[in-house]
Amino acid sequence: MDSIQLIGLAAGMLTTIAFLPQVVKTWKSRSAKDLSLGMFSLFCVGVALWLAYGILVWDIPVIAANMLTLMLASTLLFFKLRFKD
What we know:
single chain, elongated
């Protein structure tokens, strides 16, 4: 693995982990009233497209980061739909 891929993995890891505190907070509070349904819907579609792109060009940092980001963002989207405020 070269240094460019390591930078990509580090960037992907940090931007993905940034969602974790929001997932934990929303889970604990059982409230998603401050989350935007439109934003998270569009974001999940965009991340899914980035994941598809990463798979098509076989770019491991793009695949890994977007797979995890999609899981976390989809969790928040699920919470938004599940937790009725």
